[in-house]
Amino acid sequence: MNTEKKNSRRDFVKTSALLTGGVMATPLLSKANFFSGAEDTIKVALIGCGGRGTGAATQALSTKQNVKLVAMADAFRDRIDNSFKDMTGDNNIKSRVDVPEERKYVGFDAYKKAMAHADVVILTTPPGFRPIHFEEAVKQGKQIFMEKPVATDPAGIKRVLDAAEIAKQKN
């Protein structure tokens, strides 16, 4: 009986992770024309400015589309400063970084403020925070790029799945 519980828990986590990945990709694929390279600028907010976040933002800014980083958020100011310095020091993307001081948000609620400026959010915070950030991005109607894992426990995975269901209904 103990083995049965472990298997069902393991199966739940595996199935949830697969479903989450598929559900999260659906809004991006269904709005492929959003990324078609039209004249409009795609505004990006970076939530989580550590090494992975800086790398993900750099990749997003290196695309052929008209993309600009317009807001940054992190719990720690030094991470924002280091990320900003790295990106503005890269001549290939420097012109695409448009984040004045008033759009650099610090603190545990900073993500909400940064998201308000963007069309697309990049969520690269530690995975324990991602369900909360994902819910807010869905609430604000944003396109979302989220690092994996999407959560650290079944409750977090359920929050992500519930928010993804809401996002599907908005489309």
Can you put this structure into words, describing what you see?
The model is unreliable at 1-6 and 14-38 (pLDDT under 50). Helix 2 (51-61) runs parallel beside helix 3 (77-88) and helix 5 (130-139) runs parallel beside helix 6. It is built from six helices and five strands, in the order H-E-H-E-H-E-H-E-H-E-H. It has 171 residues and is of the alpha/beta class. It has one domain (2-170): NAD(P)-binding Rossmann-like Domain (Rossmann fold). Strands 3-2-1-4-5 form a five-stranded parallel beta sheet, sandwiched between helices. Helix 2 (51-61) links the parallel strand 1 and strand 2.
Short description:
The chain is 50% helix and 15% strand.
Report the C-alpha radius of gyration, rounded.
Answer: 17 Å
Mean pLDDT: 85
CATH fold name, please?
A: Rossmann fold
Report the CATH C-level class: Alpha Beta
Order of helices and strands: HEHEHEHEHEH
* Beta-strand percentage range: 5-15%
**Count of helix runs:** 6
CATH homologous superfamily label: NAD(P)-binding Rossmann-like Domain
Helix content: 40-55%
How many independent structural domains?
1
Task: Please tag this protein with its features.
alpha/beta, 6 helices, Rossmann fold, five-stranded parallel beta sheet, 5 strands, 171 residues, disordered N terminus
Question: Strands, helices and their partners?
Answer:
Elements (H helix, E strand, L loop, with lengths): L1 H29 L11 E6 L3 H11 L5 E8 L2 H12 L15 E3 L3 H6 L4 E4 L6 H10 L3 E4 L7 H17 L1
Parallel strand pairs: 1-2, 1-4, 2-3, 4-5
Helix pairs in contact: 1-6, 2-3, 5-6
